[in-house]
C-alpha cells in the first residue's frame, strides 16, 4: 500500500536531520502535497531534465535528490525558466521533489561521506571535521585501508568503485607513495586539506580541487590528493539511502536509483590515463 508523502518525509528527516544542514542550504520539500500517496521513490544526485524524464517515464511519485534545484532565493517558477519548467513537469506528473543535501553530508553512519568511505574499503572511520555540538556528525571521513596501497593503486581502486566519468580520477603526488590512512569528502572538499593533514591522512580524496591549493599542497609534507568528479563522489550514497528508506517504511514503497549520469562533462580530448610528460602541446 502507498504511504502519504508526509510519512516518507518523516523517514528521510529521521535519517538526515534538517538541523544538520548548512545555514545557506535549501533542503526539504520543493514541490509535492504531503497528503498525496507515494508508491515509488527515485533517488538521484541532481534534479536535471534527464532525471525528471526518468521519473515521469517510470511513474515515480517522489524524486529525492542530493543537490537542490532552487539553492538561491527565487520569486517565481515560470515554465519558460529551465528550473521552473522542471517544477511544472513534476507537478503535472503528480511527482514531488525532496532535497537531502548538506544534512546528508554531515549525517552519522548513513550519509554521503560514510557511503564514499565504505566503497573505498575504509574502516574505523570518524568525521574529518567533527561538529562541535556532536562529534559523531561532521564533514568528511578519515579511516584506514585494509592493506597499504601505492597512490597509483589507490587511484585505480577509486576509479573502479566510483561511477565512470569523463574526468576520471586525477592524482597529485608520487605514484609510488604508500597510502594507509585516507581522508574523503564527497563533493567540494578542498577546504578540508588542513584537517586531512592534521588527521595524519596519506591522501585526501574529494572533488573540485583548484590549481593553486593543489600546487601548494605538493610543496609541503602533507597528504597526496585524488580529485574525482563531484557527481561520482556523491553517487555511492544513493543506493544506501534508497535501501534505508525501503527498510524504514517496511517495504511499503518501491525505491530505485537513477542510472542517468548527471555529471555535466560529456567529452575529453587528448590525454590518456597515466602520468604525463612535459608541458609542450602535441602538434
UniProtKB/TrEMBL annotation:
Keywords: Metal-binding. It holds the Pfam family DUF34_NIF3. The keyword Glycoprotein does not apply. It comes from the Bacteria. InterPro entries: DUF34/NIF3, DUF34/NIF3_sf. The keyword Metal-binding applies. Homohexamer. PANTHER family: GTP CYCLOHYDROLASE 1 TYPE 2 HOMOLOG, NGG1 INTERACTING FACTOR 3. NCBIfam families: YbgI_SA1388. Belongs to the GTP cyclohydrolase I type 2/NIF3 family. This is GTP cyclohydrolase 1 type 2 homolog.
Amino acid at each position: 500500500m502507498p504511504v502519504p508523502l508526509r510519512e516518507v518525509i518523516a523517514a528521510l528527516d529521521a535519517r538526515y536531520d534538517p538541523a544538520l544542514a548548512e545555514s545557506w542550504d535549501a533542503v526539504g520539500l520543493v514541490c509535492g502535497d504531503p497528503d498525496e500517496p507515494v508508491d515509488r521513490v527515485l533517488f538521484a544526485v541532481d534534479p536535471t531534465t534527464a532525471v525528471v524524464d526518468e521519473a515521469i517515464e517510470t511513474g515515480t511519485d517522489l524524486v529525492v535528490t542530493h543537490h537542490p534545484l532552487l539553492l538561491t532565493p527565487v520569486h517565481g517558477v515560470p515554465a519558460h525558466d529551465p528550473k521552473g519548467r522542471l517544477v511544472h513537469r513534476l507537478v503535472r506528473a503528480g511527482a514531488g521533489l525532496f532535497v537531502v543535501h548538506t544534512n546528508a553530508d554531515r549525517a552519522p553512519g548513513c550519509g554521503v561521506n560514510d557511503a564514499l568511505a565504505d566503497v573505498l574499503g575504509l574502516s574505523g572511520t570518524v568525521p574529518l571535521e567533527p561538529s562541535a555540538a556532536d562529534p559523531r556528525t561532521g564533514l568528511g571521513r578519515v579511516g584506514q585501508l585494509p592493506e597499504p596501497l601505492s597512490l597509483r593503486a589507490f587511484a585505480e581502486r577509486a576509479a573502479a568503485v566510483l561511477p565512470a566519468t569523463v574526468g576520471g580520477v586525477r592524482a597529485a603526488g608520487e605514484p609510488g607513495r604508500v597510502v594507509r590512512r585516507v581522508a574523503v569528502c564527497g563533493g567540494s572538499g578542498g577546504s578540508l586539506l588542513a584537517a586531512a593533514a592534521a588527521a595524519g591522512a596519506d591522501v585526501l580524496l574529494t572533488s573540485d580541487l583548484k590549481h593553486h591549493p593543489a600546487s601548494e599542497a605538493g610543496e609541503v609534507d602533507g597528504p597526496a590528493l585524488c580529485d574525482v568528479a563531484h557527481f561520482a563522489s556523491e553517487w555511492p550514497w544513493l543506493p544506501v539511502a534508497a535501501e534505508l528508506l525501503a527498510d524504514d517504511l517496511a517495504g511499503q514503497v518501491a525505491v530505485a536509483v537513477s542510472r542517468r549520469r548527471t555529471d555535466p562533462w560529456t567529452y575529453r580530448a587528448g590525454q590518456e590515463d597515466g602520468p604525463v610528460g612535459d608541458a609542450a602541446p602535441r602538434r
